[in-house]
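Researcher: We plan to redesign the surface later, but first we want a full-length starting point. Tokens attached.
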């Protein structure tokens, strides 16, 4: 049975299991140092500022940029490196990289096609 990939959390968890291959693909100028992949920044430049945890006692696939104090997960690296401006497109790109089945076509609700985050996640966007 194929794992569910309908949420960003599920896709992020799947990316974490393949953190090293994600890093090699999206950040090819990086190198492995112990349990981390090290690269200059999210643009993939050479350097030692951005650390991506590949494995270990803490959660894998999380990154920190020591120069800027920014931090996040692999899904944001995919978003940045692929030029996607929306989470939905980033999720689609990540699903494609992971060779997971794409998100089913947007559900119809009361005869209306869903759009935006509802089309991607099947629910309304969270209010901030």
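Model: Full-length starting sequence:
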């Amino acid at each position: 049975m194929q794992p569910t990939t309908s949420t960003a959390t599920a896709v992020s968890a799947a990316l974490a299991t393949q953190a090293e291959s994600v890093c090699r693909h999206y950040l090819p100028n990086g190198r492995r140092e112990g349990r981390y992949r090290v690269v200059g920044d999210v643009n993939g430049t050479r350097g030692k500022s951005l650390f991506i945890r590949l494995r270990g006692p803490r959660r894998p696939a999380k990154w920190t940029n020591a120069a800027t104090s920014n931090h996040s997960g692999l899904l944001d690296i995919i978003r940045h490196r692929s030029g996607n401006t929306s989470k939905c497109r980033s999720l689609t790109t990540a699903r494609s990289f992971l060779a997971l089945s794409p998100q089913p076509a947007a559900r119809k609700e009361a005869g209306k096609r869903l759009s935006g985050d509802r089309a991607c996640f099947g629910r309304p966007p969270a209010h901030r």
